[in-house]
Amino acid sequence: MTTLEENLKKAEGYLERFRHEGVKNRIAGEQVDALSGETFDTISPVDLKPLCKVAKGGAEDIDRAAKAAKQAGKAWAALSGKERKKILHRIADAIEERAEEIAFLEALDTGQSIRFMAKAALRGAENFRFFADKAPEARDGQALQAPNQFNFTSRIPIGPIGVITPWNTPFMLSTWKIAPALAAGCTVVHKPAEFSPITASLLAEIAEDAGLPKGVWNLVNGFGEGAGKALTEHPDIKAIAFVGESATGSLIMAQGAKTLKRVHFELGGKNPVIVFADADLERAADAAVFMIYSLNGERCTSSSRLLVESSIYEEFTAKVAEKAKNIKVGHPLDPETVVGPLIHPEHEAKVLSYFDVAREEGVTIAAGGEKFDGPGGGCYVKPTLFTNARNDMRIAQEEIFGPVLTAIPFENDEQALEIANDVEYGLTGYIWTSDVTRAFHFTEHLEAGMIWVNSENVRHLPSPFGGVKASGIGRDGGDWSFEFYMETKNIAFASAPRNVPKLGG
Ligand code: NAD
Questions:
Q1: Distance of CA 322 from the midpoint of ligand 1 (Å)
Q2: Within this chain, do residues 289 and 200 fall inside the same structural domain, yes or no?
């Protein structure tokens, strides 16, 4: 196993070029500065020092990128699915070849531990491979027979897509959107999150080095209210694929209204893990711990509410608290680290404010609840468990987006379901029980887009991913992705001479 020192040295090597050149925009295949010449710093969550300068794009850069995407669109859409498949596989190969570089830079920029980022980089390649294989079937449709008429449907790419992504696992999440968009025959303008922009630039570069034609994938860095807003308002951009906070989704919907944007939203969550006394409790505890403390708890699908049957509540939450206390918090490049520093001091302040809220709300802090003095003195917080909470408390209702778990007891099935559904979000739910009928009942009635029974979250690319209520609009994965990135056309042929109504003689 490598050591932190070895990893730091390697990471510095990978970062060197960005320290020197900065992170630029990429428009029509050219690495360019923002037209205004402005830049901003991306900072290290470890010690808050600048990692590198980033081009601060605005409306005029978005305009150039959208025009480049429009111009490249015809040729890209006209390429056969087989050709697009080849190119996307080459991108997947190139991501695998540079997976270490991606993972190290992602860990440096986000504070996520290298053990998870190494897997996330490879998942990015898997996303490209999966949609590469689907590219040849993207235009397929249905045959629908009517009396004396033959209908068939076909799909065409909707046009340039604006992709707007968050900072938590930026590389993987970008590929999740961009790979199906390209497979469908759309071109892209990507606006990554301002807190962690480095790997987006690497990804666009990798794609073009692998043979993606210039202008098919454009990248504009910048802030939400500048570049992000301009992208959602641009008339050449036909749809917005957005991952981020629910409140931002709502803003984007309003911004895109004038140009009638199609939107796909993957938003926040306050997901319940429901544990019954008849469950495999050891496994359930491991899953609950994994789903809130992995990826620094900065994970939309995290199980941030732990609902436990009252007969086992004390025993179960004690087990979870014990595990939480044993989790190693540390430098993201330390191979032993599970929880690294949170992304940014602003986000750290938000998470810490909930520790105060919890104290005011009078819950028990069974683990953590304070800052951690980690290497570099950055945005570290301890894995935290609040017990004896009620579902109407802010710590049970609001998305904290950190390694913070709120445990609530329940008396019976009905109450468990009521508590589980009593939030504005509806992304995922996790149920732990050995009673099959109960499990079925819960899967029927839980308000969530995705439910796992006796399992942690495992992503299966052909299955639909997405949320209900304030957690999102639309589904990703399998053919669902193509439904968003493409328009369906119906074509009708008379299959026998028709008695066309005669009007006017
Ligand atoms: P955010 O909404 O603050 O920012 C996301 C992106 O939107 C950034 O690139 C930002 O610059 C941009 N943006 C901000 N304001 C904008 C505007 N007015 N117009 C256009 N773009 C704008 O989210 P975040 O803090 O970066 O990420 C955390 C959030 O993302 C959490 O709520 C989390 O649950 C959610 N998330 C959801 C999923 C999912 O699949 N459901 C996955 C990961 C993260």
A1: 33
A2: no
Mean pLDDT score, 458-486: 97
Any residues with CB less than 8 A from the CB of 112 and at least 6 apart, and which?
106, 120, 168, 169, 295, 296, 298, 332, 340
Positions marked catalytic: 266, 300
CATH number at residue 49: 3.40.605.10
| pLDDT tens sequence across 85-112 | 999 999 999 999 999 999 999 999 999 9
The predicted-structure confidence for 230-268, as pLDDT tens digits, reads as follows: 999 999 999 999 999 999 999 999 999 999 999 999 999
The count of residues in the chain is 505
What are the distances in angstroms from CA 169 to CA 4, 49, 107, 374? 21, 20, 9, 21
Nearest residue by C-alpha to atom 35 in ligand 1: 244
- Residue 43 counted as domain residue: yes
The H or E element spanning position 269 is none
Domain containing residue 106 = 4-268
Residue 58 pLDDT exceeds 80 = yes
What value does the mean pLDDT of the chain take?
98
Written as six digits, the tokens of 465 are: 């991913």
Q: Which residues line the pocket of ligand 1, CB cutoff 6 A?
A: 164-168, 173, 191, 193-194, 223-225, 228-229, 232, 243-245, 248, 251-252, 255, 266-269, 300, 399, 401, 427, 467, 472
Of all residues in the chain, what percent carry a pLDDT higher than 70? 100
CATH of the domain at 334: 3.40.309.10
pLDDT reported for residue 342: 98
Q: What is the pLDDT of residues 300-309, one digit of tens each?
A: 999 999 999 9
Q: Quick one: 65 and 211 in the same domain?
A: yes
Residue 422: inside a domain, yes or no?
yes
Q: Which string of b and e fits 479-504 if b means at least 16 CB within 10 Å?
A: bbbbebbbeeeeeeeeeeeeeeeeee
Could you tell me the distance, in angstroms and rounded to a whole number, from the CA of residue 177 to the centre of ligand 1? 14
Same domain for 284 and 257: no
Q: How many domains is the chain partitioned into structurally?
A: 2
Position 60 pLDDT exceeds 90: yes
Same domain flag for 303 and 194: no
Domain co-membership, 236 together with 281:
no
Q: What is the dihedral of CA 462, 287, 452, 365, to 10 degrees?
A: -120
pLDDT attached to residue 505: 85
